[in-house]
Predict the 3D structure of the following.
Amino acid sequence: MRLLLDSHTLLWALYEPERLPETVAILVADKANELFVSHATVLEIVNKASVHRLPMAGSSVPRIIEQITAFGVIFLSLTLTDITNAAELPHHHQDPIDRLLIVQAQSQNLQLVSKDRIISQYDVAVIWR
């Protein structure tokens, strides 16, 4: 499976794996699955960490990047098409990062791993159980 991790999924997988539903924990741990993380998610995480809003991750941005990289993810760059497509989505969801994840999951044929129920209002495969 090709899985795009939302920020909370990535953070919990790294720092608090017991918070993940069992099915999600199994999928994330399965080496046969490809784990993707958007640069938008990285930006969201390091911004929160740099203002001390993520005590679980600490505040060292280089260390957080190192830990995400060591987790074995494939990073997804943002494109202008991603940004344009996110802006054109119906406005069920107001979070621009989540809107970017939706279009990246759609365009890259990924399943989005997120507990955010609003995301399921879009035409995108979501896993959280």
In short: The chain has a mean pLDDT of 93. The longest strand covers residues 34-38. Residues 96-108 form the longest helix (13 residues).
